[in-house]
Amino acid sequence: PKYKGKRIPAYDMIKFSVNLHRGCFGGCAFCTISAHQGKFIVSRSKKSILKEVKAITELPDFKGYLSDLGGPSANMYRMKGRDEAICRKCKRPSCIYPKVCPNLNTDHRPLLDIYHAVDALPGIKKSFIGSGVRYDLLLHQSKNPDTDKSTQEYTRELIARHVSGRLKVAPEHTSDRVLNIMRKPSFSQFGEFKKIFDRINREEGLRQQLIPYFISSHPGCKEEDMAELAVITKRLDFHLEQVQDFTPTPMTIATEAWYTGFHPYTLEPVFSAKTQREKLAQRQFFFWYKPEERRNIINELRRIGRADLIDKLYGKR
Length: 317
Ligand code: SF4
Prior knowledge:
By secondary structure, the chain is of the alpha/beta class. It folds into two domains: 1-139, Transcription Regulator spoIIAA, CATH 3.30.750.210; 165-317, 2-Layer Sandwich (Transcription Regulator spoIIAA). It has 14 helices and eleven strands. It has helices spanning 9-14, 33-37, 46-57, 84-89, 109-119, 135-139, 145-161, 176-182, 187-204, 223-235, 253-260, 276-283, 291-303, 308-314; strands at residues 17-19, 21-22, 42-43, 65-66, 68-70, 80-81, 104-105, 126-127, 166-172, 209-216, 243-245. The strands form five sheets. It has a three-stranded parallel β-sheet with strand order 9-10-11. Strands 1-5 form a two-stranded parallel ribbon. The chain has a two-stranded antiparallel ribbon with strand order 2-3. β10 (209-216), α10 (223-235) and β11 (243-245) form a beta-alpha-beta unit. The longest helix is centred in the middle third of the chain and has 18 residues, at 187-204. The chain starts with 8 loop residues before the first helix and ends with a helix. The structure holds iron/sulfur cluster (SF4). Iron/sulfur cluster binds next to α4.
């Protein structure tokens, strides 16, 4: 009520976006979604989704473009265990890390069906996927050929028809050691997905961008890991924008490691950057391409004994 008819920027962002499901079975160590919404996906019915989309098409300023058909992870709609009795007894915090669970049904057909039904509605010109996509699910080879075919179809359709120029994905780091603490797949999977993304773009005559998200100062991440992240993202020709510095959030494994200094599962000591100096030193490596960061980065690389990376970042001087 305090806005009293004024524009609400946060509402503008979500006005033409539709949430398809709740929950996430990714189990990332730094994320609270599974604590808030649960590991088991609760999906809306097709009828309910279409009813909301129809209502959006009737909004006076709707121009035919839905900004998101999503959820905590865009492509988990209707996914669950093939045998739910096994799931009920399951203690795994993630259904996809370290490997996709053989009991998880990764069929993307129900989600494709929603995309098709939404796009067929009068008044819809295009529906975009603004939520983050789990590419490890797209790369997964299950033992079911129909499921795998649906995943390939989904990948092509997503890239060819539902990306508004930029597709958001979240590798979160380049170091597999840090990714392991984050409960995220190896960075090599991002490379694999990027190849598929670039190939489909070429085949479809599109020039879309992949936008990777990364986190600095996550427990277990040292400055050296960030220096290597800078070199790797430079090699891949990314100028990063979508980044964040780790913020402890209640009820996560990462925060427990950050607070205690120990990994709660292994009881091994875990380093966390905590002071402002330590955190800024990590964060600056995202921005190696900005002229104003260059001098600090070079000094820092010398200080941590990684002068070998200076040439890799800035060429021979
Ligand atoms: S059995 Fe597999 S699919 Fe079911 S909850 Fe456990 S990890 Fe997830």
